[in-house]
Amino acid sequence: VSYNEMSLFPNPSQDKLTLHMSHPAIGLRIYNSLGQEVKYIAVKNSDRRIEIDIHEFPEGIYFVSVVGENNEQGITKKFIKY
Asked: How many CA atoms lie less than 13 Å away from 49 in the CB half-sphere?
C-alpha cells in the first residue's frame, strides 16, 4: 500500500489540523523540529480523515508521519504551529 497521498490543512494552524489520507493507516506520529516524537495517534483502520488537536504544542515546525501496516513509515508532511 502506498501512503503517497495525504493532505494537511489548515497549515499553518493554531489549534487543530485536519489530515486526509488516500489509504487507511494504523497511526500517526508527530515529531518536533529536533526529530523528537511528541505525539502518537492510533487510527481506526477505516479513518481516512482525522482531526489532530495541536493547541498544547509550542509554536514551531512539526512533521506528521503516517504509520502503515507492519509499522512501516509512510509519507511525512510538515506543518507550522503558531
From this structure: 2
Among 82, 47, 81, which residue's Cα sits nearest to residue 64?
81
Task: Pick the more confident residue, 61 or 1.
Answer: 61
Which residue carries 513509515 as its cell?
73
Cell of 41: 495517534
46 secondary structure, DSSP code: T
For the segment 11-51, what is each residue's pLDDT rounded down to a tens digit? 999 999 999 988 878 999 999 999 999 999 999 877 889 99
Mean pLDDT for the chain overall:
90
Report residue 20 as a C-alpha cell: 486526509
Q: Which residues pair with 32 in a beta bridge?
A: 62
The single-letter DSSP state of residue 33 is: T
| Single pTM value for the model | 0.89
d(CA 21, CA 1): 12
